[in-house]
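Re: that chain you flagged

S.,

Sorry for the slow reply, it's been a week of failed gels. I finally had a moment to sit down with the sequence you sent. For the record, here it is as I used it:
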Amino acid sequence: MNITENTISQRSLHLIQMLVAVLVSFALLVLPSAAYASNDTAKNEIVYAKADASGSANGVYVVNYFHSNNDTTVNDPANYENVINLTDSQTLEQNDGSVAINLEGGKAFYYQGNMSSDTALPWDVSVNYSLDGNSVDANELSGASGELAIDVTITGKENSDFAKSYIVQAETSFDNDKFVIKDAGDTTTQSSGSTTTVTALGLPGETMHFKVVGDATNFSYSGLQIGALPLSLSVDLSKQNTSELSSSTGVLEDAILSASQGSSSLQSGTSSLSEGAENLASGLNEIDANGPALSKGWSSLSDGIAQAAEGGSELSSSIAGAQSSINASSEEYRSGAESLESAKAAYSTAMATAAAEAAKGSVSADTLAQINQAVQALAEASGDAGAYKALSGTADGLSDLSAGAATLDSGLSTLNSSTNEFDEGLNTYITSVGSAADGSTQLASGAETLSAGSNELNSGLSSLAAATKNLDSQIIEKAQERIDESLGKDFKNHSFVVSDNTNVAAVQFVYIVDGVSAPNSSSKSEETKAQDTSFEDRLMAVFKNMFGSFIQE
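Prediction finished late last night. Pasting the structure tokens below so you have them in one place:
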């Protein structure tokens, strides 16, 4: 039996009827009531994809389920290659992009639509095999032995809202006599008797990847079954206890606010520093510019003082020479002064003699000669005495002046020495001022940069403080958005067959990936029969595993 044929066997029909009933029952249990449209004729869609052992789909079949409380006719939008009635004997045809269906109130109706084998599915499935480290095709593994690795990747397509909103479950089973698992990665394994089942789960929008490694002996396995359905789970964080989060974020908010206030003070301080540094740089640069003129003035002063000191020294030497000459002349004039006293006495004596002789009537020539000699001596002695007196006063003045000149010379020498030291110190100061001016200019530039940086820091922290206000509420809100996105909360049901059709309660997907058959098929007809029977058995096994409690054979 080939499921791609326009007709299917009675056994397959019975099987699909049961599976549809199970899926609908399951959907009623797990899907939220809001998922069902208010329209009484909203349908459920189950999409089956048959794939080879590598994961490439080679057949897509859709089973559509309807249930109405009243007799009615439904025009179901369709895009099938052919349709098959799985419920009753009414003839179904696809006309003008829809299938007309007569529903009987209170009874279920389902039909199958076969789509093109190249129909794009929401997920791409890739299955790779390696034996003893070498990549092999699945058809080479029948009866193989060695270390076998089965690598499965299921990737949702970016343009598919089904892939972004549905959970994916992949499952496969192994006979423990033919395959002993050594490593199953992040899957769940469960052993039941001689069989081990491996199950992997992928959340909406995630790429699922798992690798099963084990020892194969005369290997065969039934293949991989993949189911995808909307995740009907709602998590409301606002109803959870978030007090610990609020407490922690409150501390963070306070710290950010304090940092913002501190940065404001820093910005004010660095602004003042920048202004002061600029003023310092300006002043020092001005001093540095006027320093050479100041140094030149002090150098001239030093030269003048040195010249004054030299003149004072010469003056002191001249005064000393003059005083020495005066002192020598003074000795001569002092001797003359003594001669004057002697002359005075001689004159007095001569005049007394003359007077005595005149009283007697005549003055002798000798007396007159004595008087004349005394007068000449007196005149000569009188001149020497005056000169002596003058020279004596001059000598005294010159002595005082000489002492003052010596003091002046000593003071000027000291001043000259001090001026030289000052000039050296001034030159050193001016050089230092130049270096300080350069440094202060750099300081002003750095302070300006610091001021600008602190201003940006203040602005940034202020914005951060505003942005982190009520941080716990923001975190919860963003987390809720992410959870809702991951759980497909905003997904709007629509048909996979015709995406514009929203009169749909739920859409589910089932991929059946071929396995590796046992190496005992004797003929093509028997092999085909075994494959068809295997497909039906595996389809039943999928739903027994997933929904066993609902299946009644």
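What I noticed first: DSSP finds six helices and 17 strands in the chain.

Talk soon,
D.
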